[in-house]
Design a protein that fits this description.
237 residues, 3-stranded antiparallel sheet, 19% strand, globular, binds adenosine-5-diphosphoribose
Length: 237
């Protein structure tokens, strides 16, 4: 395997699937039970804030406050971050905290995080890991009620840290996408940015994603198998 110096990794729901967190677009996926416009848009929140907050309260309980644990893929990426001598950036579309629990230190949550809240009145962001979020909560910063929302990027909103991500993609010599269906932009287009920068691109998935033809290489396997194997190869250099 070639010796790489600047690696960007993008993860999606598939890396957390073996830890027991449901993905979005599988037959039993989250979007099979909820209309995206009802629970993952600002319009849905304005129309029925309780429905939206309850949806994320359930996911916070399932993903972050229960006995869900990282799997070997999460641990392998934390090892790569620790031991890789070049530049490494981990970008996740996931809102769970499994990368951090596995030891990753510098994780960009481009779609936000279940364990952080934002006040719609004053835009203050703060951690939120205990009680359920409700329309009656008061912002600890501006002391106003009724504006607390999950610090999560809903459809139609702009993902976080895109400037940092694109800078890294334009400079990368290796781009790896793990467990993402490649349906949602801008993340689905990262492979094209990396390719235009001359990077080698690898997709790790159970089945080929929507962007399969845009990757140089496809590794079809469970992430808990394929990610540790790839990390071992990358660190062997
Ligand atoms: N190992 C590797 N890949 C897996 C595994 C596994 N064990 N299990 C599932 N996958 C793959 C599926 O084949 C699929 O390609 O993970 C992908 C999951 O796709 P989605 O459910 O669409 O999740 P994701 O790509 O992360 O969605 C992107 O869409 O709904 C929005 O904001 C949401 O961040 C999410 C974004």
């Amino acid at each position: 395997m070639k010796c790489y110096r600047k690696i960007v990794v993008l993860t999606g729901a598939g890396i957390s699937a073996e830890s027991g967190i449901r993905t979005f677009r599988a037959s039993d996926g989250l979007w099979e039970e909820h209309k995206i416009e009802d629970v993952a848009t600002l319009e849905g929140y304005i129309k029925n804030p309780k429905l939206v907050l309850d949806f994320y309260n359930q996911r916070r309980e399932q993903c972050c406050l229960s006995d869900i644990k990282p799997n070997l893929a999460h641990y392998a990426l934390a090892k790569l971050e620790r031991e890789f001598s070049g530049d490494f950036l981990l970008v996740t579309q996931n809102i769970d905290n499994l990368h951090e629990v596995a030891g990753s230190k510098n994780v960009i949550h481009m779609h936000g995080e279940l364990l952080r809240a934002r006040c719609s009145h004053c835009a203050q962001v703060f951690s939120w890991s205990t009680k359920e979020m409700s329309i009656h909560d008061v912002c600890e910063h501006c002391k106003r009620q009724g504006g607390i929302r999950p610090n999560i990027v809903w459809f139609g909103e702009i993902p976080f840290a895109l400037d940092i991500i694109y800078d890294a993609l334009f400079d990368a010599d290796l781009f790896i996408a793990i467990g993402t269906s490649g349906h949602v932009y801008p993340a689905a287009g990262f492979v094209d940015e990396a390719t235009s920068a001359g990077a080698y691109t690898i997709e790790l998935n159970l089945a080929s994603g929507a962007q399969k033809s845009n990757f140089d290489e496809m590794i079809l396997a469970k992430a808990s198998i394929s990610v540790p194997q790839l990390v071992t190869k990358l660190l062997a250099k």
